[in-house]
## 1
Amino acid sequence: MSKRVLVPSVVGVVVLGGVAAGGLAMAYGATEPTVANGSARYVAPSDGRAGTLTFTAEVSDDSGVRGLKVVAWPVSSKLGPTEDDLRKDVDGAVCRSVSAERARCTYTLKVSQAEAAELSRGSWHVSALATAKDGGTAFVSRAAVFDVTG
């Protein structure tokens, strides 16, 4: 085989291999959503006004953010909700886009005086399940912690 035929053939294989590898990288390069900067705050009811539990987090994904499901649970209960638990009938946060790939999600729950009286006192965790527009999910078992007092 002459050198003129061999060199272009080798270059062609390298170029085609690079294109194929790039295509695979793009196909498998999709990222899972992330949940960052989670914070929770509980305010007890007072003076006839309802209390609130508020959880806020930044959610991002390269395909965009579809939603965020949230559940709060007392540490003393040792419940530890799972990703499957959050896929069921769980409250969702309100997510507002701040860019094509990022949203600020806020979950607010009103707490009546009667409900507050039955809450376990002490530390609570918030678990969160983020869902991206491409269907990817990210589960955070302990996205935030807060205290219920009084």
Note: The chain has three helices and seven strands.
## 2
Amino acid sequence: MGALSALEQALENRWDALWARLVDKEPVEILGALRRECDDNAVVCGEGRVMVPNAYDVELPDDVHDCLTRAGTDVGQVLTDSLSRHAERRGYEFAGPLAVHVARCADVPNGRYRVAGRVMRYVSADGFFHATH
């Protein structure tokens, strides 16, 4: 399993490097911020069980958002996939289905991005149907 994990890490590092070359260094910084948010909010729930938030919001100024989405890439999905691999390597369990939502924000404090994680309750399709009818 160690060789497989090393291969996954190498592929992810190459992906990060390619993405950084295409659109400066912003995506790599955002990925790092997402990983830190995940790590910083990890809660040990029992022996060998570590829970992390399952919903993450990434707020970007207009110019950064435009740059990242210009190529038609689903940035939210790319970030979700990367964060999922990070959590798997660390042995984390998400508090529900994982989602990374990327949105525009006119007043990002550092002018580049803001990342926040939270636990979003899982709602089944049946529960949603009953709640709306």
Note: The chain is about 50% helix and 25% strand.
## 3
Amino acid sequence: MSKAALEKLVEAFRVEHLAVGFTRFVVSDCGGGEGDARTEFNTGWDMAYAAQVMPVWRQRGHLNGALLELEEFLRVLDTVLRCGGTIPEVTVMPRPPVA
């Protein structure tokens, strides 16, 4: 719900503040970093169960087997913000591993 609410808020800001170039970043399969950059997504997971279901998630295409490095995401974020253009949405995801 909070992601949907945030998306609606950004849509409203885009209409109300035309001079500001809002960019939505969609980040896929990123493990986060240390400290404030650490993800809380898997906090409290039963890791034994997660080890059982992760191969199923990969098989179904929910995970590609790679994680986006935080430094790579930050590089992309910096590039987009410095470009001076209006980019409404950017999706950043790791490249699938080479078989």
Note: The chain has a mean pLDDT of 80.
## 4
Amino acid sequence: MDIDVRGPRFGAAVTTVVLAVVLVTGSAWLLAWQTLAFALGAAGGVGRSPYGWLFRTAVRPRIGPPAEFEAPEPPRFAQAVGLVFAGVGLVGYTLGPDWLGLAATGAALAAAFLNAAFGYCLGCEMYLLVRRATVRAE
């Protein structure tokens, strides 16, 4: 079942704010929260993430029905990519080195910002590249 394209973009906007606060404060706890949000989105799809729930219950009823839909697999893959970067960042912030936490969190922030501001999902594009490569290999 296809999903409302505005949901993942909303999630990316919230993620952008969360990750920016992590970079400013160095809060491993806040990055742990974001890691959990990515994990839930990767495991159950973006609709099952906390930001997907917030979009579905608080935002979508106020902005009306969607005009566009997209397949759920690319955003779900993007959540898994975000999970990897947030996990690496969490290791950096908690166990060191600090630069690892900063770099991984900064990379995740850049990807989330691109999606939130411009609707360009790096993880989704990675998904499509992987799909093309695996289909040709079969």
Note: The chain has six helices and two strands.
